[in-house]
Design goal:
Radius of gyration: 37 Å
Structural class: mainly alpha
Largest sheet: none
Oligomer: single chain
Number of helices: 5
Strand content: under 5%
Shape: flat
Length: 111
């Protein structure tokens, strides 16, 4: 047995053009506009030569900044840099964070 022919088919280009021109939006969107893309703007900016420097006055050279001497770390910095103190502070912060989270979500241990 044969399959029946489909009654649906694409309309022709003339019908598409007529429907587009009959639309109330054709006045605003009917004209094709080719705007400059961001890529075109960027490549034009890169390809453009830099503006020439004024010839009457040479650009002054920046003055070098004097080097600052590093101060030796103080007693507090030495203590906080210790691995033992770092480990203690990390475990204390973890316990504090856990208790805050338990308090917020209502799972705190009751005494």
């Amino acid at each position: 047995m044969r399959a029946p022919r489909s009654l649906m088919a694409a309309i022709g280009p003339d019908a598409v053009t007529a429907a587009a021109k009959g639309s109330p939006l054709f006045a605003r969107y009917g004209e094709t506009v080719d705007r400059e893309s961001a890529y075109e703007k960027l490549t034009a900016k890169i390809a453009a030569p830099p503006p020439p420097a004024p010839a009457d006055a040479p650009a002054p050279a920046p003055e070098p900044q004097p080097r600052r001497e590093r101060a030796e770390p103080g007693m507090v910095a030495e203590v906080l840099g210790s691995p033992v103190v770092k480990s203690f502070l990390r475990s204390a912060a973890t316990a504090l964070g856990r208790e805050i989270t338990r308090g917020l979500f209502g799972t705190r241990r009751r005494r």
